[in-house]
Specification:
Blueprint: E1 20-23, E2 29-33, E3 39-44, H1 54-87, H2 105-127, E4 129-133, E5 139-144, E6 147-153, H3 155-158, H4 163-191, H5 193-210
């Protein structure tokens, strides 16, 4: 086979990496995400006990993250819509369809062979629960579906921990849980090179037709 199994389509980056914020209902926890979905910041106000019950703090972290992720996806869709309006019907530079390599018959055969295992493996990866615990054992974050799942705090620790310390302990675990999505994608690319290359060529063809 002649294709590069690890090749990927080129993505255009914006002039700046905007942050997308989410806050829980009590304004105790704030989560901000980068455009690519990685964690930018997690903050918890130091007087958090005056705003929320200790039993509800973990849920507030998840709520803030979910709202930040929703804001990020909404912004992503809006940018895509504006780009489509801007380029719709206009002549934009790009590779002509004829210059994009055709999908080889050998590759299509390999994709057919890989497809069932690809779907099953991807589905299994998304259903896996991966617990991540801080060195002191005070925070546990569970990655589910390649993203942030459950958050749990040690109840005794919460009796005296200030917001800054809680956020400092939870932040790397939340970031790691979010990054499991990229880890799953990388693993899928390496284990199923034919599907990866098929998707790459198909995306190139679609982009060339739009140009």
């Amino acid at each position: 086979m002649s294709w590069n199994p690890y090749a990927s389509t080129t993505e255009s980056a914006g002039d700046a990496d905007d942050s997308h914020a989410g806050v829980d209902d009590t304004e105790t926890v704030t989560v901000t995400l980068h455009d690519d979905g990685d964690l930018d910041e997690l903050t918890i106000v130091d007087d958090w006990r005056s705003r929320i019950d200790p039993e509800s703090l973990a849920g507030a972290v998840f709520t803030a993250y979910s709202r930040a992720e929703r804001a990020r996806l909404d912004d992503e869709r809006e940018r895509a819509r504006l780009d489509a309006e801007r380029t719709g019907g206009a002549e934009t530079p790009g590779a002509p369809v004829s210059s994009v390599p055709d999908i080889p018959a050998e590759l299509l055969i390999e994709v057919t062979r890989e497809q069932a295992d690809y779907v099953a493996t991807f589905d299994e990866s998304l259903r896996q629960h991966r617990p991540l615990t801080s060195a002191d054992g005070n925070v546990t974050v569970t990655a589910v579906g390649g993203s942030l799942g459950d958050v749990a705090f040690d109840s005794t620790w919460l009796r005296f921990a200030v917001g800054h310390d809680i956020a400092e302990t939870a932040r790397p675990l939340v970031a790691q849980a979010i990054r499991t999505g990229a880890e799953i994608e990388q693993d899928m690319r390496q284990r199923f090179p034919a599907v990866t290359e098929f998707k790459r060529l198909r995306a190139l063809k679609a982009a060339a037709r739009r140009s």
